[in-house]
């Protein structure tokens, strides 16, 4: 933290401080005395007011708007603790409805015989999916009298950071298959070089964070079928469908990526992304109860009754579960299809308009999830780059990050737009107008801008 920018003592605006109240408070120490609730409210309200405008944030996947009926439900439920299933049995029941609906949406052979749970987001859901893969591999190897000290997980070099965390925190060797201009996603190419008897599973992504592209899960499964025929290795897939899990069923129903493929053991999604719920909510569902080893489930009795739990957290908010149920009831299949379809139309329109501006080449065209990335055309000389464009657009309030691609492609910078519900065609036109103005400004530079602080990829 740059201390020069932060005053140690916060001055309380005399308009807010009531007679007899302190007019100062320390910033890095808990104040000694209490203050009136109105004064504390005003300080927090004012300090957080300078956060960005979420509607202009085209960097995040996370929902920032829900209908006022959902807001009402949220207010009614913000005190519910999801873990306290004895106190809130209805919320627990509703959680089961939600993941059973997801199991059905993702074509589980017997949705009512699957097992799943809610989480704080896809990161936790991925950890649980990864842990189940690891434990199943361990139990099988132990039964065969084989060593279990070198588990590895195979995935694209463009995985979201949660998979790197999983491998780091749970002692699993990450094996990254590098993406390239020829293989823009993990597509099964040379997979046999990465898997072996210590592979606990393969991660396939439906909606790569860097670009929004789908990985062809059916193709990956076929390559694994071939590997099994040759070597006997039976390797399962976890699908990280953080975004695509709530897009593909509605917009690309013929894409076979889910439990229709026998090799898919588990799937996660973020309720708070295209599930259209406020943060933080994720879901993970296993194909059947055998896919989630019983040895991972804890039974706790502190809250009354005996509750099975498989989660990294204990207490966490339960309100989002009710909001997800509200969204499922409110939109239904056809409603989700319409909302996601409208979002996808805007994304494809934006991709096409950005391509027409001139200096850019699209990495992808938003035909998977409503997310796309572009790069500067090769062999053209400019005094500016995508980082400069990102800075210029930020001055107008738009948050559109530029970042390097992962290992093997780190020389390539891309810029990405995530379109969410709420970015309509009017706002899209405004963005294109702003982009054209800023590109024209940058094109007039007769020398490069001073190098700015270049941030890495913010997932
Ligand atoms: C593919 C993928 N997996 C996992 C995550 C982590 O999701 P969450 O933010 O819900 O923890 C993301 C977030 O962008 C993602 O894109």
From TrEMBL:
Q: Which UniProt keywords apply?
A: Decarboxylase, Lyase, Pyridoxal phosphate
Q: Which Gene3D superfamilies match?
A: 3.90.1150.160, 4.10.280.50, Type I PLP-dependent aspartate aminotransferase-like (Major domain) (3.40.640.10)
Look up the domain of life of the source.
Bacteria
InterPro entries per record = Glutamate_decarboxylase, PyrdxlP-dep_de-COase, PyrdxlP-dep_Trfase, PyrdxlP-dep_Trfase_major
Q: Does the keyword Lyase apply?
A: yes
SUPFAM superfamilies attached to this UniProt entry: PLP-dependent transferases
Tell me the GO molecular function terms.
aromatic-L-amino-acid decarboxylase activity; glutamate decarboxylase activity; pyridoxal phosphate binding
Q: Please give the Pfam families that the UniProt record associates with this protein.
A: Pyridoxal_deC
Q: Which CDD domains match?
A: DOPA_deC_like (cd06450)
Q: Kindly list the GO CC terms recorded for this protein.
A: cytosol
Q: Any stretches that span the bilayer, and where are they?
A: none
Q: Which cofactor does it need?
A: pyridoxal 5'-phosphate
UniProt catalytic activity: L-glutamate + H(+) = 4-aminobutanoate + CO2
Q: Name one GO biological process term.
A: L-glutamate catabolic process
Q: According to the UniProt entry, what is the EC number of this protein?
A: 4.1.1.15
Point out residues bearing the modification N6-(pyridoxal phosphate)lysine: 273
> Its family?
Belongs to the group II decarboxylase family.
Q: Which NCBIfam families does the UniProt entry name for this protein? A: Glu-decarb-GAD
Query: What is the protein name for this chain?
Result: Glutamate decarboxylase
């Amino acid at each position: 933290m740059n201390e020069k920018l932060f005053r140690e003592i916060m001055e309380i605006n005399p308009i807010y401080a009531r007679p007899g109240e302190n007019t100062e408070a320390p910033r890095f120490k808990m104040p000694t005395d209490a203050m009136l609730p109105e004064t504390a409210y005003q300080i927090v309200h004012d300090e957080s007011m300078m956060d960005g405008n979420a509607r202009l944030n085209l960097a995040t996947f996370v929902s920032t708007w829900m209908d006022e009926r959902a807001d009402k439900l949220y207010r009614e439920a913000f005190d519910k603790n999801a873990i306290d299933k004895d106190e809130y049995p209805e919320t627990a029941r509703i959680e089961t409805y939600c993941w059973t609906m997801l199991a059905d949406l993702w074509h589980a052979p017997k949705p009512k015989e699957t097992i799943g749970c809610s989480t704080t987001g896809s990161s936790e859901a991925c950890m649980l999916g990864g842990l189940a893969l690891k434990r199943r591999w361990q139990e099988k190897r132990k039964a065969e009298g084989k060593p279990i000290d070198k588990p590895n997980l195979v995935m694209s070099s463009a995985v979201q950071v949660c998979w790197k965390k999983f491998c780091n925190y749970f002692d699993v060797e990450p094996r990254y298959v590098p993406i390239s201009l020829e293989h823009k996603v993990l597509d099964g190419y040379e997979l046999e070089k990465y898997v072996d008897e210590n592979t606990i599973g393969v991660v396939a992504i439906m909606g790569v964070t860097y670009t929004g592209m789908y990985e062809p899960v059916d193709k990956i499964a076929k390559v694994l079928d071939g590997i099994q025929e040759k070597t006997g290795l039976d390797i399962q897939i976890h699908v990280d469908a953080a975004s695509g899990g709530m897009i593909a069923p509605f917009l690309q129903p013929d894409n076979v990526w889910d439990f229709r493929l026998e090799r898919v053991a588990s799937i996660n999604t973020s309720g708070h992304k295209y599930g259209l719920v406020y943060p933080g909510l994720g879901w993970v569902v296993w194909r059947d109860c055998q896919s989630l080893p019983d040895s991972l489930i804890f039974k706790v009795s502190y809250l009354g009754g005996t509750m099975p739990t498989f989660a990294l957290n204990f207490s966490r908010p339960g309100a989002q579960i009710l909001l997800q149920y509200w969204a499922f009831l409110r939109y239904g299949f056809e409603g989700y299809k319409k909302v996601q379809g409208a979002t996808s139309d805007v994304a494809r329109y934006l991709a096409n308009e950005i391509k027409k501006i001139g200096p850019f080449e699209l990495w992808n065209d938003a035909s998977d999830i409503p997310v796309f990335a572009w790069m500067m055309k090769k062999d053209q000389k400019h005094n500016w780059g995508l980082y400069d464009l990102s800075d210029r657009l930020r001055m107008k309030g738009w948050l559109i990050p530029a970042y390097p691609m992962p290992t093997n492609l780190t020389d390539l910078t891309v810029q990405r737009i995530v379109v969410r519900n709420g970015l309509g065609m009017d706002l899209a036109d405004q963005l294109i107008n702003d982009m054209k103005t800023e590109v024209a400004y940058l094109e007039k530079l007769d020398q490069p801008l001073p190098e700015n602080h270049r941030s890495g990829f913010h997932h």
